[in-house]
Hints:
The complex is a heterodimer.
Chain A: E1 2-6, H1 10-15, E2 21-30, H2 33-44, E3 57-59, H3 87-92, E4 97-100, H4 106-115, E5 118-121, H5 127-131, E6 134-141, E7 150-164, H6 171-179
Parallel strand pairs in A: 1-2, 2-3, 3-4, 4-5
Antiparallel strand pairs in A: 2-7, 5-7, 6-7
Chain B: E1 2-5, H1 6-22, H2 26-38, H3 42-61, E2 71-79, E3 82-85, H4 89-103, E4 128-134, E5 139-146, H5 148-151, E6 155-159, H6 164-179, E7 187-195, H7 197-207, H8 219-233, E8 248-258, E9 263-270, E10 277-280
Parallel strand pairs in B: 1-3, 2-4, 7-8
Antiparallel strand pairs in B: 2-5, 5-10, 6-9, 7-9
Helix pairs in contact in B: 1-4, 2-3, 6-8
Amino acid sequence: MQKITSPIDMEIIEDLKAGDQVLLSGIIYTARDAAHKRMVEALDKDEKLPFDIEGQTIYYMGPSPAKPGEVIGAAGPTTSGRMDAYAPRLMEVGLRAMIGKGLRLPEVKDAMKKHKAVYMAAIGGAGALISKCIKSAEVVAYDDLGAEALRKLEVEDLPVTVINDIHGGDLYEEGKAKYKITVD
Amino acid sequence: MREIETAKITQEVARMCQEANFYLGEDVIAALKKGRDNDTSDVAKQVLDQILQNAEIAATERIPLCQDTGLAVIFIDLGQDVHVTGGDLYTAIEDGIRKGYEEGYLRKSVVTQPFSARVNTKDNTPAVIHTRIVPGDQLKVTVAPKGGGSENMSRVTVLKPAQGKQGVIDYVVSVVEEAGSNPCPPIIVGVGIGGTIEQTALIAKRSLLREVGKPNPDPEVADLEAELLKRVNALGTGPQGFGGNTTALAVHVETYPAHIASMPVAVNIQCHSARHKEAVL
């Protein structure tokens, strides 16, 4: 399985293909819809984002609380479609990778091709397993949002699968087509 | 008349909120293993293995199976010869949810006024509570935390009686197909047919409490369940939507008589983190 580091180099982004299984290490940021709304509002007002988004990876995730002595609680992906209204705007300003689960709208997939960004899926509902890949977590902004705050995570060998690459590949369509059976 | 203290109810609800979120049922684990052994996709096998590993880690370390520890859906069967003492029943239940979610480090995922403010209530209440008054002197409490990802892909409609069985099949399959990877497949599909719009939704939800894959006792309904499972798994969506034959672990159907003019149908989708615990007091 290919090991890659976030922020992800553009040469690697260009090579990634829908269906590739990847172990991701490095720095990623978490944000759900409430944090996305604030980031896009900031951009609309010409304000700076809470972190330099150029080349970065956003993980759509809101963890359960960390137990004492733990880095984080369960930490699996949330449904990405809720971020579709905001994702193209963030790709415009440099977002290079998104991690979540579930379907994206055609305009989001078009934006991925245009801005050279990839969409990867983590295993939905594997929150306990994924928590083991998270080595540190700190709230960067929007602390008032609780679980939905913007966090910076350091991850090690987080298992993800490329869903949409920059060439138009789409694992959700390809996988389904391959295993579809016609019933009388 | 048998007396049951509210303090006991609170304690049991708190315990079950945590146990439901840490310990996946043996029936779900068995169904996941069966899916892993039978799926023809290697990627699907790997995904199902990771889901099984996740259940092991969650149970061993008491970490929630999923960070979405759900809105607490509570089913109460209250024996008519029970007298609840020391306070009111619903307050006792919600006190249990507060305690269970706080002490178990579970995520609080409930917001007020859904169309506007959406402010987190910070204690995972209110719950959604369904109560039946039943004969006897016992109180049965079921705690079923429900995640947003799968609930969001659930649907209710009212079909025309002329659409019959085929109409039900087409509708259920279309809902599952449209849901795709969003509800974290492999899923359990709860189907309600009949009653009124709220009744069909409720029997669909209740069907999710059944042991995974245990057929409906009515052979005609059991046949429909088998037919639906075959068709849903023929979609090819597979575990996590990566492609495969295990889109659903089971389809559970419950029916209820309907108005001469109506055939309400509800599809309540349950993710693989199919969590529910019950206690009889």
